[in-house]
Write a structure and sequence with these properties.
Strand 3 and strand 4 (317-325) form a beta hairpin. It contains 12 helices and 4 strands. By secondary structure, it is of the alpha+beta class. The protein has helices at 2-16, 48-51, 63-73, 75-94, 128-132, 134-199, 205-240, 261-269, 271-274, 276-297, 334-398, 404-439, and strands at residues 101-107, 119-127, 303-311, 317-325. It is elongated and about 135 Å long. A 4-stranded antiparallel sheet has the order 1-2-3-4.
C-alpha cells in the first residue's frame, strides 16, 4: 500500500496550493455622469507635455485636459490594458517548469499463494525536451508582452490625437453654430420683407427667389451644423467614457504646431528608437527570432527521463530508470521551422514598410503644413475684408441705400469666406496633430509656437 499512501500525500500537497474562484459581476456600462467623476493620474501619461500639465477639469477642459482624460478613461484603452495583463500572465506561464509526472500502480493477487505478495510500482519522470526549449519560450513570451505594452502605448498616442481632433471639431462647430445662427437671424428681416412684397404683389416669384433661398439656405446650414456638432460631441463623450448626456465644458484654443525643418529632421532621425508602434514591431520581430530558435531546438529527439521503484509478487524490490525519445526520421519539426522562417521574413518586411510609409507621410504633411499656413493667412485677410463689407452693406441696407439682392450677395460672399477660413484653420490643425503623432515629439509645439486662434 506504499503507492497509495504516497499518492494521497502528493494529492494533499497539491490541493494546498490550488487557486480559488471568486465571482466578478458585469457592470452596467453607463459611463460617468460628469468629468468631475473621472480620475486621471498625470504622472502615468505617455507624453511629457501631459505629465507636466496642471489638470483641473472642474474649471473646464482644454485640449490637453481632454487628452489626459481620454488616456485615463477611454473604454478601448481599458480593454487593451486587460490584454496586456493577459500577455504578462502568458509570459509568466512560459517561464514555469513543466510538472513532473508520477506513475503509481499496484497489483493484487487473485488467489493467495504461499510466499507471494502483491506487486506495486511507482516512479517519477520529467519532460527533458521542454526544459531545453524553456529559454526560447521565455524570451519569446517576454518580447510578446513587451510588444503588447508598446502597442498599448501607441494606442494611447493615437487616442491623444483623436481627443485633440474631436476637441477641435467641437470647438469649431460650436463657433460655426453661433455664426450661422447669427446669419439666420440677420436674414430673417429680409425674408420677412420679401414675403410681404410677394403678398402685396410688388414682387414676382422669379425676382423673390434669391431672397427666399437665402434664408432657407441659412436655416439648412444651421440644421446641418447642428447634426455634425451632435455627432462630434457624441464621439468625444464616448472617447472619454462619459454618459451620453454628460456636459462638455470646453475651453481654450485648438491644438496647433508649426515645427521648423530642423525639428522635424531631428525627430525623424530618432524615430525608430522612440515611436511605440515601431518599437512594438521590433519586439515582435525579437519574439519571432526566439520562436524560430525554439523550433530549431525542437527538431532534436523529444526526451523523457524518469526513475522508478518496483516490487513483484515474489517480494523482490528493484530500482530503475526509464528513457523515452522519438526517432527523428520523418518530421524533424521541418514544417514548423519553415513556418517560423517565413513568419520572420513577413515581420521584417512589415517593419521596413511601416518605416518607409512613415517617412513618406511626414514629408507630405510637412509640405502640406507650409501650404496650409499660407492659405490660412490669405483666407483670413480675405474674410476680414468681406466682413467689413458685410457690416457696411447691412448699415446701408437698413437705411434704404442698398437693394436687398446686392445686400444678400455681399452677405453670402462674406459667409463663404468665413467658412473657407474656418475649414483651412481646421485642416491645418488636423495636419499638425497628425505630424506630432507620427513624430511623437512634443517639443514640436514649444510655448513660443502655441498660436492663438483668431
Amino acid at each position: 500500500m506504499h503507492g497509495w499512501r504516497a499518492g494521497t500525500l502528493v494529492g494533499l500537497m497539491l490541493l494546498a496550493g490550488c487557486a480559488t474562484y471568486s465571482p466578478q459581476p458585469l457592470g452596467q456600462g453607463q459611463g460617468a455622469a460628469d468629468v468631475v467623476h473621472l480620475s486621471a493620474s498625470t504622472a502615468d501619461m505617455p507624453l511629457p507635455a501631459l505629465r507636466t500639465h496642471h489638470f483641473d477639469p472642474a474649471q473646464g477642459m482644454d485640449s490637453t485636459d481632454v487628452a489626459i482624460l481620454a488616456v485615463a478613461n477611454n473604454p478601448d484603452l481599458k480593454v487593451m490594458r486587460d490584454q496586456l495583463g493577459i500577455a504578462r500572465a502568458q509570459s509568466f506561464a512560459a517561464g514555469l517548469l513543466p510538472d513532473p509526472q508520477i506513475a503509481i500502480s499496484q497489483d493484487f493477487l487473485a488467489h493467495k499463494q504461499v510466499g507471494a505478495t502483491s506487486a506495486y510500482s511507482y516512479g517519477i519522470s520529467e519532460d527533458i525536451t521542454s526544459l531545453l526549449t524553456r529559454s526560447t519560450r521565455v524570451a519569446a513570451a517576454k518580447s510578446q508582452a513587451q510588444q503588447v505594452n508598446l502597442d498599448l502605448l501607441w494606442a494611447e498616442w493615437q487616442t491623444i490625437a483623436q481627443a485633440r481632433l474631436l476637441f477641435n471639431q467641437v470647438i469649431s462647430l460650436r463657433a460655426q453654430q453661433k455664426q450661422l445662427a447669427a446669419e439666420q437671424a440677420a436674414l430673417a428681416p429680409v425674408d420677412d420683407r420679401v414675403r410681404k412684397a410677394l403678398q402685396a404683389g410688388n414682387l414676382t416669384y422669379d425676382a423673390a427667389s434669391a431672397g427666399l433661398n437665402a434664408y432657407a439656405d441659412a436655416s439648412k446650414r444651421v440644421s446641418d451644423n447642428t447634426i455634425q456638432l451632435h455627432q462630434s460631441e457624441h464621439d468625444l463623450r464616448l472617447l472619454l467614457g462619459l454618459a451620453p448626456d454628460a456636459p462638455l465644458d470646453l475651453i481654450g484654443e485648438s491644438f496647433r504646431a508649426n515645427p521648423t525643418p530642423q525639428q522635424v529632421q531631428a525627430a525623424l532621425a530618432s524615430l525608430p528608437r522612440r515611436r511605440p508602434d515601431l518599437l512594438a514591431l521590433q519586439a515582435g520581430y525579437q519574439a519571432q527570432e526566439a520562436t524560430l530558435r525554439g523550433a530549431i531546438r525542437a527538431q532534436f529527439p523529444a526526451l523523457n527521463f524518469g526513475v522508478d521503484r518496483q516490487r513483484d509478487t515474489t517480494n523482490e524490490v528493484t530500482n530503475g530508470f526509464t528513457i523515452g525519445f522519438t526517432l527523428p526520421l520523418f518530421d524533424r519539426n521541418r514544417g514548423n521551422i519553415a513556418i517560423e522562417k517565413a513568419t520572420r521574413q513577413q515581420l521584417k518586411d512589415d517593419y521596413e514598410n511601416r518605416l518607409l510609409t512613415t517617412r513618406s507621410d511626414i514629408a507630405q504633411i510637412t509640405a502640406d503644413l507650409d501650404t496650409l499656413a499660407r492659405q490660412r493667412d490669405q483666407l483670413q485677410a480675405h474674410a476680414a475684408r468681406l466682413d467689413q463689407a458685410r457690416v457696411a452693406a447691412q448699415a446701408a441696407w437698413q437705411k434704404g441705400l442698398l437693394d436687398w439682392p446686392t445686400y444678400l450677395s455681399i452677405r453670402a460672399n462674406a459667409l463663404g469666406a468665413d467658412v473657407d477660413f474656418i475649414a483651412a484653420r481646421d485642416q491645418q490643425s488636423q495636419q499638425a496633430i497628425a505630424l506630432e503623432t507620427l513624430l511623437g515629439d512634443t517639443d514640436l509645439q514649444p510655448s513660443s509656437l502655441a498660436a492663438t486662434t483668431p
